[in-house]
Amino acid sequence: MAMKKFINNPDNLVQELLEGFVLANQDKVALEGSNLVVRVNPKPKDKVALVTLGGSGHEPALSGFVGEGMLDISVPGEIFAAPGPPRVVEALKAVARDAGVLFIVLNHAGDVMSANMAVDMAQKEGVTLAKVLTCEDISGDPEDRRGLVGCLLVIKAAGAAAEAGKSLEECAAIAQRMADNMRTLAVAVSGATHPSTGDVIAEIPDEVMVVGMGQHGEAGGGTQQLKTADETAEIMLDALLNDLNVQSGEEIAVLLNGVGATTLMELYLVLRRVKQLLEAKGIGLAHSLVGEYLTVQEMGGFQMCIARVDDELKALLKAPCNSPALTVK
Amino acid sequence: MAMKKFINNPDNLVQELLEGFVLANQDKVALEGSNLVVRVNPKPKDKVALVTLGGSGHEPALSGFVGEGMLDISVPGEIFAAPGPPRVVEALKAVARDAGVLFIVLNHAGDVMSANMAVDMAQKEGVTLAKVLTCEDISGDPEDRRGLVGCLLVIKAAGAAAEAGKSLEECAAIAQRMADNMRTLAVAVSGATHPSTGDVIAEIPDEVMVVGMGQHGEAGGGTQQLKTADETAEIMLDALLNDLNVQSGEEIAVLLNGVGATTLMELYLVLRRVKQLLEAKGIGLAHSLVGEYLTVQEMGGFQMCIARVDDELKALLKAPCNSPALTVK
Description:
Two copies of one chain form a homodimer.
Chain A: H1 13-24, E1 29-32, E2 36-39, E3 49-56, E4 73-79, H2 85-94, E5 101-106, H3 109-124, E6 129-134, H4 151-163, H5 168-180, E7 182-190, E8 208-211, E9 222-225, H6 229-244, E10 251-258, H7 264-281, E11 284-291, E12 300-308, H8 311-318, E13 321-322, E14 327-328
Parallel strand pairs in A: 3-4, 3-5, 5-6, 10-11
Antiparallel strand pairs in A: 1-2, 2-4, 7-8, 7-12, 8-9, 10-12, 13-14
Helix pairs in contact in A: 2-3, 4-5, 4-8, 6-7
């Protein structure tokens, strides 16, 4: 697969994409300090601030989640690479406040290492914070689950709670409750290329789909023949419901995240089938989100994320927000 | 290229995607009558209603533009095919009102034929309406320019005007002014497959880009070696500015529409360069929109649309709206 992307000098890729990103969303976000993505209308200092970090190349994630009712700062790294601790510390200090800082970290080795070092350093400098790790991918190592698109639900719920004036303890508890009650599974049908190096991220044979592929092409062992939308929906939903142990009578939110080349059309078919399957099991569909939130360049496939929701989490997911990747009126 | 899509029986594709689409956006849209996509909170009858029609397979277009401050009804056809006149008449009659109906049609042969027949029939039944045709693609036949993603700007501006209580004459004049002052050019780097038939929509050799390719793979004659983001931005912007005859001191809106596999990352690079080029020419960037609004399945490439805007059009583009594909607070 030859790389066919509109880029310039790969060395400037992240700098250029961030400049274009804030230009396209100048009513919501801006660059500050060493390329930290911040809200243009900062939240009052008496409310909890939300921070995250993560590699670039997954647009709109994660900087697209910065805005009213969502994140206060995102620290973007290089392509598919965590930012180093100094910039993370800079972000944590920039939003430091008596109300405290909630730091949401996706479980990937580089992100976690940077985050932990930054937390130590920021706390030594007096920053009040709580950290919540997302690790909801049910494929791969059960002792070290990856954080996938579920981070959006955690950020949405905790962000709405912070906007409503909840304490750091309450916001962290909400984020943790969402994180504990969500599960994600990915499926891939076609590969992608690394935008700086041209390296192939994942090579997937014709007529095959890979259930459980991570967002950087990590294999999950689920290689099988390509199925229909209905069949794929059922395979993935059953695995998720089983892992989360969802019972008849409960309610879940469903997030379908296209990772690049897979169309909204296909995701709508999958959602339709998910709803039918849930109805048959007596499980309620409390909320759904369908779109491209965390992509893997031009890869074909999607992530299905489910989350068990109580009334409070449901209300927080539906609360207003205004970020580049998600706006709710 | 083998087709790798999550679909079921191709005969049910549009029905299923519409069911999933309204399920995913149930706070905004619903299906009514013979699969018309309508607002769940209809606009008061004393305000002008907006209607459009168009083939499916371009999600989120065009039904994704239904909502507050945007369209009142969209009539989706089969994949890449116009809906027949009876359903269009049904839509026009469903929103018929003394205030009148503004009917926005993209210039594609099938859409125009259906639209014209429906207009005749609806007018005979007493529906008050005005029709505006969008035909802003500067590639191809100069006497018969295609309507591409620019329809979004026309719908956004006229939809905001209608929501504000403007008359049919005023809304139609606004839509026509936007249509007359916009131009679009597409570039493609990789092909796609027809989701029902598996037919290849466009075959594009390695290392090549095609400037001027229409949304169904119509060639525009612009086959050339793949360029960088900066070079491509300049080639496309210059062609558009020249065709629209934009002068130093004027202001334009810029819409960058990813058609499928091309990433937001790449579009941000292009927008960044567009802004630099405009500055050098003394042209203002009044507004920008970057995203996937009108797609062509998994095709790689994007459409660049520019529009000369006065203060009224600028305000209408920035006005609040709430639709599946675009929400402005």
